[in-house]
Each structure stands twice: as C-alpha cells, then as structure tokens.
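PROTEIN DESIGN WORKSHEET
SECTION A - STRUCTURE
LENGTH: 386
TOKENS:
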C-alpha cells in the first residue's frame, strides 16, 4: 500500500483565521497550518478536535505545516483534496469500485474541446474495448450518522460542470463523477439541497444520464491508500418530496453590546451582548426570506426586522423539509442548547416560549448547536431512506 506522507503529527484544532489557514495546538505550541480544503466544514471544525498535519513541503510556504486529516467521533477523515485524483486512480486500477472493474486510468488532467470550448477532466479512463470515460472526482466531507451530502457550500461552478458533463454525454462521450465519501459509516448519498438547491435540482436532472458513484472509503492514522467499504445508495425519491424552496431556517447573528430596543407592538425589550439564533419558517420562497433577513434596510414587519439593524449577520441556515411542525420542534431543539432566550420573541402565533435564543460564543463553532442542524438536515432523512 502506498503511504501518502512520511511524517504525520497530531494537533488540536483551535481556530480558523481564513478559509485556507487553521490555528492548532501542537504539544502546547500554537502553530499555523495550511488547510487545502476550502469547504465550510462547520460539522467537523470544533475546538479541541484532533487534526493530522505534515511539515509543509514548500520552503517558501507561509505556514510551517499542512493539514491532511481530521477526526470525527474517533474516525479518521481525509481532508487533503490534493490527493483525490491519486486515491481515485488507486481505487480504479485495483478494481475496488463496484461496477467499474473494466476501467483503467490512461491520462490525468485530460482536456476535451467541444463547440470551441475546452474543458479539463480529472481522469481519462479506458477499457479493453478501447472506449473512453471522462471522469470528475469530488471529495465529500459533509456527513451525518449514516448519510453524506455534497457540496457543503454553494457552487455555481459545480452546477455548470454537471450540465457540461451531460452535454458531453449527449455528444457521445462517456462521462461521470466519482464522489469519494470520506466517512466509512455513510450508507446513502444525496446532493445537499439545503445548502445549494440549484445544484441539487441540476444533479437530479443529470444523474440518470451520467455514470456516477458515491463510495464510502475508510482511512487510518497512517494515511495509506484507503479501502472502499461500500457504494452509497442514492435515495432520489427524497429529492421529490424535500428538495423545494420551503421549510425552516436559523439565522445566526452577533450583538456586540447590551441593547434595549422597541420591538413593534411588543414594546421595549432587553437584549444582552452575545450570539443569537432566530428560528423561522417559510412555506414558499425560503431563499428570499433568508436573504431578506440578511438585509438591514427594509420595511419593519417581523420581530426580527427591528433587531436585525443592530447586529452582525453571521449565517443563514436553511433546512428544507416537508414536515409541518418543523418550526416549533426546531425552536425547542435550539432552546435546548442555548444559554438564554428572549421571551415571546417571534412566537406570537404559536405556543413556543420564544424563537430567539442566545449564547456567549458563536454557535457555528458549537458542536451541540451544529448537531441540531445536522439532525434536522440529515439524520431525520434516515427514516425516509428505503
């Protein structure tokens, strides 16, 4: 088995100054490490989790180390996307991908011209019949207990890439995608319609035309080439019922000072400094509702409109679901991990104590809060997977 790295060190995650750099505690010393995976990875990056790093192989690099992996619940996960094509080639050439045993890799970074446009693909495969297979490779690091989704951030480029693969397929090429699910416990795979609804809709449209697979792979601390534990199922019927622009959401905001504020007809209310989580719902146009909440200038309508102008918006987290009672059950779940709430804020039309909750630190980096989001976005789908 090929070992990808000579020296692997363990460190504890402490922060992420930007998309490509993390701060780590390495045996009591604070160090910087390059993060080659620019994804959000909110479900993985929590203070104190174990990360695997290697000395940077570029002498002029801005950081001394480079991240290669992380642990989730004691399971080793590969984060170094620089090796995705190497891993894919290893799995294909060793006939470890079910259904693709006939293919072998003949080229890397292969360019195809179509209608005057050049496109580069990760791998070119062939078989004994001389047929060619254009393959894209994607690393998936968004998981739940038994599921996996891609992507973890909006990717218009990725959506257009899917359409181009289908166009090439229509022109007679054999095209496909390999999703390397870096979580050997994942049983099913779906496009992440919560985060990127347009990507999910496009994936649903083109998936029947492409030769694609999502395979769960298992790593260990040595980071030798992984094994394929199984191919993930594709419960496409879930997209029919759940992948619509409606559901519930959580707006995460930061108030940097204590505030007494008049909230419409409710009168004066007190808000202490901290991070706030507001739970709402939209039966239609969920995306527009979240974008409206992000804007400061607007006509005052909801309780949140009055509060929004005084705080910083951190994130809007959509949860697309067909469940009728999701708003109130989600509010109750968020209340369970919050440190305080603002009584009757945003809950005038229900029996909830509140729909606005607070905590001292950023909930995006709080595992208990992100577990709530994961539960509503992914774990609840387990009951729908057939």
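SECTION B - SEQUENCE
RESIDUE ASSIGNMENT:
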């Amino acid at each position: 088995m090929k070992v990808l790295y000579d020296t692997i060190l363990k460190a504890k995650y402490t922060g992420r100054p930007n998309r490509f750099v993390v701060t780590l505690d390495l045996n009591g010393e604070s160090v910087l490490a390059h993060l080659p995976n620019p994804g959000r990875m909110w479900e993985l990056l929590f203070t104190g989790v174990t990360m695997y790093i290697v000395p940077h192989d570029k002498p002029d690099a801005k950081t001394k180390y480079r991240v290669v992996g992380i642990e989730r619940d004691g399971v080793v996960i590969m984060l170094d996307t620089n090796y995705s094509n190497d891993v894919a080639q290893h799995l294909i050439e060793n006939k470890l991908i079910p259904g693709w045993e006939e293919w072998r890799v003949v080229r890397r970074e292969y360019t195809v011209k179509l209608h005057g446009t050049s496109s580069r693909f990760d791998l070119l495969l062939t078989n004994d019949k001389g047929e060619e297979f254009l393959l894209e490779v994607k690393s998936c690091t968004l998981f739940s207990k038994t599921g996996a989704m891609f992507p973890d951030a909006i990717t218009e480029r990725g959506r257009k890439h899917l359409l181009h693969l289908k166009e090439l397929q229509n022109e007679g090429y054999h095209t496909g995608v390999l999703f390397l699910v870096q979580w050997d416990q994942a049983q099913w795979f779906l496009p992440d319609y919560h985060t990127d609804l347009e990507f999910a809709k496009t994936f649903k449209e083109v998936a029947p035309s492409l030769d694609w697979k999502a395979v769960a792979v298992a790593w260990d601390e040595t980071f030798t080439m992984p094994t394929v534990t199984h191919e993930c199922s594709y419960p496409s019927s879930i997209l029919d019922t759940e992948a619509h622009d409606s559901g519930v959401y959580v707006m995460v905001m930061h108030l940097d000072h204590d505030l007494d504020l008049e909230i419409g007809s409710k009168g004066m209310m007190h808000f202490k400094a901290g991070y706030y989580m507001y739970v709402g719902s939209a039966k239609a146009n969920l995306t527009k509702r979240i974008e409206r909440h992000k804007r400061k200038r607007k006509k005052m309508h909801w309780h949140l409109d009055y509060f929004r102008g005084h705080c910083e918006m951190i994130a809007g987290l959509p949860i697309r679901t067909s469940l009728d009672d999701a708003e109130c059950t989600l509010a109750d779940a968020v209340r369970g991990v919050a440190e305080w709430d603002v009584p009757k804020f945003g809950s005038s039309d229900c029996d909830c104590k509140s729909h606005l909750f607070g905590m001292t630190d950023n909930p995006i980096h709080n595992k208990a809060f992100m577990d709530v989001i994961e539960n509503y976005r992914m774990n609840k789908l387990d009951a729908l997977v057939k």
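SECTION C - NOTES
Residues 204 and 285 are 20 Å apart (CA to CA).
Residues 156-170 form the longest helix (15 residues).
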